[in-house]
Amino acid sequence: MKKINKIKIVSSVILALLLFTSCIKDDDYGTPDISITEPNIPLEQITTFRAMKSLYDQAVNDGNATVVIDDEPDLYIEGYVVSSDKSGNFFEELIIQNKTDDSSPDNDPRLGFKVDINVSSLSDTFQFGQKVYVKMDGLTIGETSGVITIGKGDAVDVKQIQAAEYKAIVIRSNEIETIIPKVTGLADLTELDENTLIQLNNMQLNRFEMGATYASESFDEFDGLRLLESCDSGISMIMQTSTFSDFKSLVVPQGKGNVTGIFSRDFRDDFNVLVINSSADVNFDSTERCDPMELTCGLASTIGSGNLLYEDFEPQKNNKPIVIDGWTNYIEAGTEAWEGYSSTSSNASLGRSARFQSSSSGDDSNIGWLITPAINLDAQDGETLRFKTSNSLSDSSFMEVLYSLDWDGTEAGVTLATWGVLSAAYVVKDTDSFVPWFNSGSVDLSCATGIMHIAFKYTGSGQDTFDGIYELDEISIDYVE
Amino acid sequence: MSKISLIFLLGIFSMSLFAQQTLVKGSVKDALSFEPVEGVTITIEETDLYLLTDANGEFLFNKNVPLGEQILRISKTGYISKRFPIVVNEGKTVNITDMTLDRDASDAGDLFVITLSDDELNDDTSGADNISGLLASSLDVFQRTAAFEFSSSFFRVRGLDSKNGSILINGIEMNKVYNGRPQWSNWGGLNDVLRNQELTSGLTPSNYNFGGVLGTTNINVRASEARPGSRITYSSSNRSYTNRIMGTYISGLLKNNWAYMVSVGRRWGNEGYQDATSYSSNSFFTSVEKKINDKHSLNLTAIYTPNRRGKSSPNTQEIYDLKDIKYNEYWGWQDGEKRNSRIKEVNEPIIMLNHYWELNNKMKLNTNVGYQFGKLGNSRLDYNGTDLIDGFPQGGGANPSPTYYQKLPSYAERNFPDDLGNAYKALKAFENDGQIDWNAMYRANIGNGKNAIYALYEDRVDDRQITVNSILTEEINDNIILNAGINYKSLKSENFAQVIDLLGASTYLDIDGFATTIDEAQNDLLNPNRIVGEGDKFKYHYNIFANELSAYAQAQFSYKKIDFYVSGSVKNTTYQREGIYQNGGFPDSSLDKGNELIFTGYGAKSGFTYKLTGKHVFDFNAGYILRAPSIQNTFSNSRENHNIVPNVSEENITSVDASYVFRSPIVKAKLTGYYTKISDASEISFFFADGIGGDNTAFVQEILQGIDKKHFGAELGIEAQVTPTIKLKGAAAVGQFTYDNNPNLFLSTEPDDEAIAAGFVDGFKDFGQSKLKGYKLASGPQSAYSVGFEYRDPDYWWFGATANFFANTYVDVSPLTRSTNFNTDFDGNVFNDYDEDLARELLKQERFDDYMSVNLIGGKSWKIGKYYVGFFASINNLLDEIYKTGGFEQGRNANYRELRDDKALDTPVFGSKYWYGRGTTYFLNLNVRF
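Structure tokens for the assembled complex are given below, as produced in the milestone run.
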């Protein structure tokens, strides 16, 4: 009995003590309340994107690189996040635009800014479509990589907003809107579309990009640059993908369709690019492509000693349309044509050369054809084509080298004829330096038969996003005697 | 004093007039219960004669008994020692029956084991693992000092970690096969029933097993051998837990030949000394013994001590300077509560059945079967959750650690040296917050609307282990004892990660987001692109099978002037990995069973004790052990594949020690010199390394193979009972523990593009030798000293104070920066700006500041009716000294240029991470016995 009593004492004391013990909570947590207090910003403190951009434009006109917004009074802009770094294609930046769709009223036109923030995984905090207020006082507006950027900084540079302060500068609203991208054609894009979400329809990746990944080819440094082209206009633009993106090693889609992304400039501000938020923004679901007919004889290993045609444009006059017997210089659109030019600057011509320049044309579209006389491929063997090209900042405008076996020789018949691409010919690229001249290589024509015309076609416009210059010289067609 | 001696002087000895032999005999009883006390050490002072009382509390000296006036000393841990003057006449018998021993009401032996053994002792992340806390039951003053005074400074006896000592419960080894170390939490909070400990230190022979070079501790939980009684204890502290209650009932051997022990306890606290270190532990123990007859006895024991606690982080000096030594980066606020992301849970019940068989009065056979099962979990945050878009994982979050280097002022300072405003902002932000932002993770997951980006998960080890052994003890004659044992252990260890909380999301894509191809990204090719939810296993899943079969035999000889022993053992160990997942990075070497690895170990040791006189004793031991590497140090990347450490082999340990013992009635002292060499060891450390191939955080395994280590030094313990109430004590440990060669270094990681770019082949890279020879081992303070006193008032109150000095504590050096990787450029040539002198300066091992801690302890006990009430309080680190107990270099600055540039800053971005000791802490204890 004595033993039993002891057990009773021990257990009752333990129980009594345990009753007082609080439970230690180290698991089983519920979801906390994560709603945001809706910021209450007086309307009079909210200004427009245009007002901010004008301040910057003024500063540039005054010869300054940036504008620093005054510390007083409190000043906000209201916009929507259209970028996401979730897939790693944006890094330490937010792209915000002022509209949820393509509306662009005159008093508050559609515009976008880049906000530079030294924080990764911003998409944890700022979702796509989330309405935000940017407290502008004390911030700096300038340009980084060719687009307008908001950050900290001074009269010279825009610098990153730091992790310790960004939450007080970019203020979230609970509102998350559906963003309808601006559906547009490549030729219609202007500087005002930079930092905004656009959608391009009926697009495909250039046939030479087939099989490539978004950004993990051996030559991809920092970014993978892939050529997107429009099946409607044939115009192309670079799709830029970071080599740090999660989808860098995915193979680009092979079909055609629409693509949505941020319209921007490349890192060095040399050309336009489209930056997608994730590979899901490329919807090339149609398996049909719109590739041109191609002549696929490849490059010739030898060049014959006979010559059918040689043109170095020496007799031409500067800034006058090229006029050569048997050649056709046809303006399909706009007011500009292939013209003679010479220069001894760093951007030198080869004596006199031919060039196409659409800048300052004021035209919505410039398309020009320079077409050779007829070449009878049945009269000899081993025909090859050689020529040289150079550019002067091609700005997304492009030049193609085409052939036709059915053109009737009239200007009216140009667009009716079937034109194929001499795909073996190297034509200077948008991304090439403007200084050197590039050899086309010896393009083998001998696998074709019949009467062939070869055309040098330029496509561009008077818009400064699309107004490049191409130069052409030393066209030679040879054959084996 | 006078009370005690007088009673016995007057009382109780009589002489037998008829005996021919000169004998001294008697018995000892508990002063309170009058039950016989077994295991009391009876010493005739000034001689080398001593023995232990038997189960009836009786003893008998029948040889070489000195004549004339002698002093008999009786002592046992937990009791107050007594001395009795006797007069021995030739041919006569001195018979002193029923001497009584009073309980040492202070029970100080309790204190430190409680607070250490399941707290600091068990910090597997810090590597601060030592056995010193367990030495509390030792009679040796040095070992007791190591336990009471040194262990909170992560002092390691002889610089060796706990895998060099065996912990047994009822003869069953408790060291984990995984790393050879005991998992202290498995019996935490059961102090009342774990008092009965038998300790052999160093190479001294144990009656239970061959042991390691740090000896063997056998905890005897046989119900019939525990001291009967009941006890209730309440404690309060600000160290690891804040409250503890324990209750214990021990029946003793009842008349029906049954014996029972029951103990329950709970330790808990929302926060220990470090921020948000929650503690929640329950302890249940029961042991039942049935004495079947005089020859057979059966004992069944069950131990269940589930334990959950919040861990605390090591931090860089920059962080300690901005916060304080209580700062812990692992927690953040959630709904007004501190939520710790790193919870360690140990829940591994033990059941054992022991059979005791007295074959005859000279021979005993003890057979034990033990089974242990359950789980061990360590939680952490994952921030690489992705969604499958176009068949590829896209997403991932930012490192949620508030001390991620990019969030700290040093990083802003390094990157914006001309704009220190940024560093100031970062400083303010860290000072004002600096904790995990749980809400942000919930928001990101909920905002993403698909799979979780952030997830809380647990690395789990679910072991099932059975141990069977038999231990034979035979007294051949009065001089020779034979021990032999055979032991079989079989372990199935299931390892996996498990989702605990998806933080607002409901799914997680079980894929490695850093891989280059979708196949490589698979954690399990058998279930590609698997979506998991809370409670599901993910990331990795495999079993390790281990079997150990060992036998040992030893003979102990004791003679008048000399005792000696020889001991030998053999052990066969096999390991095998079985992959349950087929890892995408290693499709051919991850699934199903890998090769079986076989290791053969053996050990041999011998030693002698030479008793020059009772005052002067010399002791010498030498041993050689060849042992299998632990599982941890065998498989190089067991989460993903079957690979093993290249050239992995058994480790060699050679150890010798020599002691001189001085014993006088007033002074006891022991001086020991030792030398231990470990060679051919391998070590694998796992960590998330930044900057190995880009900015990504990669989970890497750092493999050091062929390591030689040298440990030598001296230990001194001395105590002097200067008056009956005052005892002075001192201890010193002076050692030098170093790497003794340049081991081979390999790194292993995921075989992705970044690893390939960084020169890894199949996720593996050979870094050649790491020039570690001569670097100090990070094994706590290599020198420690203690001086102190105890005052015990006859009126049952007492206090003591000690001052402890610690020196020569070193940072754990990074092997990677001591490899050729340090000075070679990408093309294999030495950096063109490499400066030998500067490099030497950069690679100099950091030695921490020496420090002193002062500890106080005091208590009082009362007897109220049948109840004994004891109270004591202790204060550790009274002067609130701030000191580093350990630390390690971060692996990120892997080469000369990076390290140079980083160290050039006032506060390096990737400085070493440190553990700091606690400031002033207290412990209060109240117990009632009846």
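The longest helix of chain B spans residues 420-432. Residues 1-19, 106-130 of chain B have pLDDT under 50 and may be disordered. Further analysis is deferred to the final report.
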